[in-house]
């Protein structure tokens, strides 16, 4: 079974587009359902909130659809 396709936003962020630009040139991404948003209510400690903010800042390809 083949691996899932790398999202174009992730490819741009990690530099994979520079390695093989033709692979990502015509790639069309699905529309976003909105930004990742705030941390879940069950995140109580400061370290959990810090981790969430780090994910939100450093992984821009994550969006509302990844919150299941």
Write up this protein.
Helices cover 43% and strands 0% of the residues. With 68 residues, the chain is an all-alpha fold. The protein folds into two domains: 30 residues, no CATH class; 36 residues, no CATH class. The model has no long low-confidence stretch (mean pLDDT 86).
Comma- or semicolon-separated keywords:
single chain; 43% helix; 68 residues; 4 helices
- The portion of residues forming beta strands comes to under 5%
Structural class: mainly alpha
State Rg.
Answer: 15 Å
Low-confidence stretches: none
**Number of DSSP E strands:** 0
Count of discrete structural domains = 2
What is the tally of helical segments? 4
SSE run: HHHH
Task: Offer a quick outline of the entry.
With 68 residues, this protein is mainly alpha-helical. Helix content is 43%, strand content 0%.
Show the helix and strand layout:
Elements: H1 8-14, H2 16-19, H3 21-25, H4 46-58
């Amino acid at each position: 079974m083949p691996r899932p396709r790398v999202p174009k936003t992730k490819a741009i962020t990690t530099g994979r587009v520079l390695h093989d630009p033709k692979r990502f040139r015509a790639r069309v991404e699905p529309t976003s359902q909105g930004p990742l948003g705030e941390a879940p209510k069950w995140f109580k400690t400061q370290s959990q909130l810090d981790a969430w903010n780090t994910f939100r800042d450093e992984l821009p390809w994550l969006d509302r659809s990844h919150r299941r």
